[in-house]
Amino acid sequence: MTIKEGNSTIAIRMYDGEDFMESLKTACKNYKIESAVFSGIGMFRSVEIGYWNGHEYVKRVFDGLSEIVSLQGNISVTEKEGDIVIHVHTAIALHDYSVVGGHLVNAVMYNGEIFIERLHNISLLRKDESTGLKGLNPA
């Protein structure tokens, strides 16, 4: 992973075989990012996507190269523990040109270009909700 920090934007280049979530968490820790939005393009080598059915995530793994059609999310912290939470949605194009998408659970990169935009004077906190999810609460 290669990282360059600007005024409020952080550009990340991810390489073949890197774990997307772990790499992004490492960047957040190293650059003290607790409140941000991000987007990206590139390709996954393998990706696990989930769909929330109202009770749990129904997950599916897509192995093999896929093109990232959309990748966007936010970075926040849990209210009590202060742990980094990365919430990502993605859409990917498969070899047959079909497109699938949902909540990104995990992914192994083939290549990626990620841009993180810090949110100044806005705290993003995650709180437990009755839905079973941790809801985003801007403060």
TrEMBL record:
Domain PPC: 4-139
Superkingdom as given in the UniProt entry: Bacteria
InterPro entries (alphabetical): PPC_dom
Pfam families named among the record's database cross-references: PCC
This protein's name: PPC domain-containing protein
